[in-house]
């Protein structure tokens, strides 16, 4: 176990593997989502999730027929209006999620945003911020904060 957040979700493990090997690792739970650690001028992109009422990484559920990479690209753009030309696959995350302690895997990607585009609030993201990890910042999901280290 790496850490547990305040909602009881557990970040169990991280597998730094090659993207082509994803499906060799997910034998005990489904691959359900992709997350993106994005940077611009040495600051990390976070969204304020208006439903959850906290800051988190951009990302979301993999649609049927969609690859984890396609999901990461789509979710980054839908939630933040930003894009990354060369997303890098960082590895697989394994979680135990509440309320039913279900196991899930997620794909983690990272990359540098070259040019900022105007953000527009949407059905999930109320606001975005670029965080330097040094300034005081509250109400960020503990697991997402830890995932910044995998950039």
Automatic annotation (TrEMBL):
By what name is this protein known? Answer: Nudix hydrolase domain-containing protein
Requisite cofactors:
Mg(2+)
- InterPro entries assigned: Nudix_hydrolase, NUDIX_hydrolase-like_dom_sf, NUDIX_hydrolase_CS, NUDIX_hydrolase_dom
Q: Where is the Nudix hydrolase domain?
A: 30-151
Keyword terms: Hydrolase
Q: Looking at the keywords, is Transport present? A: no
**Family that this chain belongs to:** Belongs to the Nudix hydrolase family.
Q: What is the lineage of its organism?
A: Bacteria, Bacillati, Bacillota, Bacilli, Bacillales
Q: Which organism is it from?
A: Lederbergia galactosidilytica
Q: One MF term from GO for this chain?
A: hydrolase activity
Tell me the superkingdom of the source: Bacteria
Q: Which Pfam families does its entry note? A: NUDIX
């Amino acid at each position: 176990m790496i850490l547990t957040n305040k909602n009881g979700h557990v970040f169990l493990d991280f597998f730094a593997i090659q993207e082509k090997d994803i499906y060799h690792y997910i034998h005990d739970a489904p691959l359900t989502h992709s997350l993106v650690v994005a940077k611009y001028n040495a600051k990390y992109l976070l969204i304020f999730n208006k439903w959850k009422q906290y800051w988190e990484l951009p990302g979301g559920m993999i649609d049927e027929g969609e690859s984890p990479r396609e999901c990461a690209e789509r979710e980054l753009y839908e939630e933040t209006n930003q894009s990354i030309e060369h997303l890098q696959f960082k590895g697989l995350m394994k979680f135990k999620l509440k309320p039913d302690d279900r196991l899930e895997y997620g794909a983690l990607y990272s990359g540098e945003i070259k040019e900022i585009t105007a953000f527009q609030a949407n059905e999930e993201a109320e606001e975005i911020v670029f965080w330097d990890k040094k300034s005081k910042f509250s109400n960020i999901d503990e697991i997402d904060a830890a995932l910044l280290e995998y950039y």
